[in-house]
């Protein structure tokens, strides 16, 4: 066995300020409130910066700035709006190393992922929707589709910059203006994005960024002058938002949790399936709404697949997220770590068998080893609830019909994976799986042209693709 030499990415490319203001009307402004909070690097618990905690007045000021900008922005020809979006996309590419390092520092995800997955997708999203801005009349929503107005957007911490791109790019392409609130634990790339908006000469007020916690998000979605609410986060908060905006006339899209089944048939290419299962649940420490957190494997190949999976897991490298060899980074927060621990401990109490490879954890920061539960029953909480961590529940099935039944036996319906060499079986399964996205012989693949979104408690509305325009047009 060769040992890996450390291959750390330098953090010199990022210039983190000790403290940040709010980005409103194209300017950095002080919050009206006294509250500030610190954002830390979850891999070391080092404080990275202090950010403002926007109050209701701050949110109001941001919404007013967005309202003021809406008139001219929506009246601008789509081909002009497209130029700004193309410019933003290009600056993101030019500054992608800086953005990737900052994302990894604030979130804990491996640099390999922020550099090779998040950032290319972020830029691709802006390029893609830039292309739509002057073609909205051909999007299938009538000859002259109108924007909605001011969009209030609230995003989670698992893909901070990517979720920002999913929200801001289509909104702007359609002629809306936005106020966005990033998650409390990962505000820094959104604040750097604000700087990029200035660098691109985006008209003031088209994009406003207000940092803060849940109350700031609530103030934003409840603001009477917000026309559109776009939320990505937990089902619990999504439910609260749906309740609070009901009857207000605001248009809403909700992208919530998931408990996806990754289904492996006995005729699948097993080595490939193992890679797909690993990618499905251990990518981004399992902090992925569409993670393949339930492995359904056909009984006749279950032992073989599990052996191969365990061998593969033993080679995963957990540690410094800035090291280019790292596969598994830090858990994003102490609170999330506590939740993963609680559900995993419950898995054992309920009778499932827990396994992790030998995996030393760093002393500081928040860490959880890749973990597999076998002997999982459908009634177990680890089979029903979203763990949102590197924890896989393994169940078996005998027939395709049983696989479908088990896969659909969940209140969620965001994604699913099917591994088989038979095309006909893929189509048969895809017809029956109640999931917004069904991947075949792959998993966690994203493309800005492809719509994403869920059924049931995974939310409503679609992001990405032509479908994603509908959420920001008055149709
Ligand atoms: P969360 O607690 O729902 O938080 C999401 C965002 O909402 C954060 O910015 C949060 O602010 C804010 N927020 C909290 N309470 C609010 C309220 N009452 N009103 C308005 N905003 C409020 O979820 P999370 O723990 O950050 O994220 C994990 C969840 O997101 C998982 O369930 C995951 O499945 C889901 N997710 C879904 C998708 C998808 O596309 N379907 C993508 C990624 C994640 P603070 O951070 O300051 O609390
Ligand atoms: Mg942080």
Automatic annotation (TrEMBL):
Domain Aldehyde dehydrogenase span(s) in chain numbering: 28-474
Keywords (A to Z) from UniProt: Oxidoreductase
InterPro entries associated with the record: Ald_DH/histidinol_DH (IPR016161), Ald_DH_C (IPR016163), Ald_DH_CS_GLU (IPR029510), Ald_DH_N (IPR016162), Aldehyde_DH_dom (IPR015590)
PROSITE patterns xrefs: ALDEHYDE_DEHYDR_GLU
GO MF entry, a single one: oxidoreductase activity, acting on the aldehyde or oxo group of donors, NAD or NADP as acceptor
Record: active site: 255
Keyword Oxidoreductase: yes
Protein family per UniProt: Belongs to the aldehyde dehydrogenase family.
Protein name, as recorded: Aldehyde dehydrogenase
Organism of this sequence: Streptosporangium carneum
């Amino acid at each position: 066995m060769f040992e890996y030499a450390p291959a750390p990415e330098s953090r010199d490319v990022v210039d983190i300020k000790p403290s940040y203001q709010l980005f409103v009307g194209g300017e950095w402004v002080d919050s009206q409130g006294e509250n500030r909070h610190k954002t830390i690097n979850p891999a070391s618990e080092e404080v990275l910066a202090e950010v403002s905690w926007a109050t209701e007045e701050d949110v109001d000021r941001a919404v007013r700035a967005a309202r003021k900008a809406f008139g001219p922005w929506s009246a601008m020809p789509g081909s002009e709006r497209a130029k700004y979006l193309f410019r933003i996309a290009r600056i993101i590419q030019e500054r992608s190393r800086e953005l990737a390092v900052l994302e990894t520092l604030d979130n804990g995800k491996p640099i390999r992922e922020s550099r090779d997955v998040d950032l290319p997708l972020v830029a691709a999203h802006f390029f893609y929707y830039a292309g739509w801005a002057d073609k909205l009349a051909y999007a299938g929503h009538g000859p002259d589709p109108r924007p909605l107005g001011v969009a209030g957007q609230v995003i989670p911490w698992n893909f901070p910059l990517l979720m920002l791109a999913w929200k801001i790019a289509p909104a702007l392409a359609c002629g809306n203006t936005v106020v966005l609130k990033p998650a409390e634990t990962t505000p820094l790339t959104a604040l750097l994005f604000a700087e990029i908006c200035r660098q691109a000469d985006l008209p003031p007020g088209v994009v406003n960024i207000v940092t803060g916690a849940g109350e700031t998000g609530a103030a934003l979605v409840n603001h009477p002058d917000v026309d559109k609410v776009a939320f990505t986060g937990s089902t619990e908060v999504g439910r609260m938002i749906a309740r609070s905006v009901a009857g207000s006339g605001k248009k809403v899209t909700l992208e919530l949790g998931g408990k996806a089944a990754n289904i492996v048939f006995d005729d699948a290419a097993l080595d490939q399936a193992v890679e797909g299962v690993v990618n499905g649940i251990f990518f981004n420490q399992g902090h992925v709404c569409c993670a393949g957190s339930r492995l359904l494997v056909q009984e006749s190949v279950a032992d073989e697949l599990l052996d191969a999976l365990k061998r593969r897991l033993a080679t995963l490298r957990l540690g410094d997220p800035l090291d280019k060899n790292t596969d598994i980074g830090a858990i994003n927060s102490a609170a999330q770590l506590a939740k993963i621990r609680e559900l995993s401990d419950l898995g054992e109490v309920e009778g499932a068998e827990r396994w992790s490879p030998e995996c030393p954890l760093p002393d500081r920061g928040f860490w959880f080893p890749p973990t597999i539960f076998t002997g999982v029953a459908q009634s177990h909480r680890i089979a029903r609830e979203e763990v949102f961590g590197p924890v896989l529940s393994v169940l078996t099935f005998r027939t395709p019909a049983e696989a479908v039944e088990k896969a659909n036996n969940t209140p969620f319906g965001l994604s699913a994976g099917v591994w088989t060499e038979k095309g006909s079986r893929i189509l048969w399964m895809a017809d029956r799986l109640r999931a917004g996205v069904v991947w075949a012989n792959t998993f966690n693949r994203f493309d800005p042209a492809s719509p994403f979104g869920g059924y049931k408690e995974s939310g409503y509305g679609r992001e990405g693709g032509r479908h994603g325009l509908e959420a920001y047009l008055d149709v």
